[in-house]
Amino acid sequence: MIQFENVSKVYPEGTRALSNINLTIKDGEFICIIGLSGAGKSTLLRTVNKMHDISSGSLFVNGTDVSQCKGKSLRELRRGIGMIFQSFNLVSRISVYKNVLSGRAGFHSFWGVLFSHYSKEEKILALKNLELMGILDKAYQRADKLSGGQQQRVALARALTQDPKIILADEPTASLDPLTSKQVMDDFLKINKTFGITIIANMHHVDLSKKYATRILGIKDGQIAFDGRPEELTDEALMKIYGRSLTDNELLEK
Ligand code: ADP
Fold it and tell me: What is the pLDDT of residues 109-139, one digit of tens each?
């Protein structure tokens, strides 16, 4: 469970990115966060694994006070949280398999990672997750030889290999064409349903969000402007989030 209590975030030069966020996310939810660029979606996501510190309020992830995490406890927090990026963030010059295995890095020392001291179980887990994502046949190819959709599946297999309770995804489909975007969202859904992993994804596409999420959060000016089920996301609600109603094309693109 993730609990935000009166969380605000002000960046050092004064931008107030989040204002008094109160939010509880239960285990196993599939949440899509929508809103205009600059609304605070990415900041909200990155407070959960402490990529960004909160300025005030409190934030608990599975009972752990995120503000108090540092050193060993921060490593422990981050081991339980996978992260997916728009640009995939793979190491391009190494194999797909090694990228996926690096999901275990947080469980080893610096030297262990450098000399690839992964156990047999960890290696099997990496291969199983490649199979689950349908790209086992690409295991020994260089990561940068794959298509965008395939690279995002590698990133998902890497996150899964970490054995996380939560996956944070920052615009995971923004670099992908509509069909590939849908396929990658199917993979998120598979992960959510198979392992009960909580998914929190910042999304460009309102339509995709409505199709996959169990709950949608609309963020406007650092505040929650909408929190409800996909079918509750009416034109009126979109108006609150985006400041005006969206055209059919924008619903697909935003
Ligand atoms: P979104 O993900 O909805 O586009 P962000 O969370 O990236 O929104 O940004 C929210 C606000 O915080 C914006 O005004 C943005 O310019 C500002 N911001 C984001 N990241 C930083 C940063 N690292 N330093 C300073 N300001 C930032």
Answer: 777 666 677 889 999 999 999 999 999 999 9
| Assigned domain for 212 exists | no
Ligand 1: residue whose CA is nearest its atom 19? 43
Rounded to the nearest 5°, which phi and psi values hold at 97?
Answer: -60, -45
> Partners of 76 in the beta sheet?
none
Q: Verify whether ligand 1 is closer than 6 Å to residue 33 (CB atom).
A: no
Asked whether residue 45 is assigned to any structural domain, the reply reads no
Range of the domain at 107: 92-162
- Has residue 152 been placed in a domain? yes
Q: 178-195 and 148-161 helices cross at what angle (nearest 10)?
A: 20
Say what the pTM is.
0.93
Q: Residue 114 domain-assigned?
A: yes
Span from the CA of 195 to the centroid of ligand 1 (angstroms): 32
Total domains, the chain: 1
Q: Max Cα separation, the chain?
A: 56
User: Which one of 9, 43, 217 would you pick to mutate in the ligand 1 pocket, going by the greatest count of ligand atoms within 8 A of its CB?
Assistant: 43
**Tens-place pLDDT, residues 152-181:** 999 999 999 999 999 999 999 998 999 999
Atom of ligand 1 nearest to the CA of 11: 25
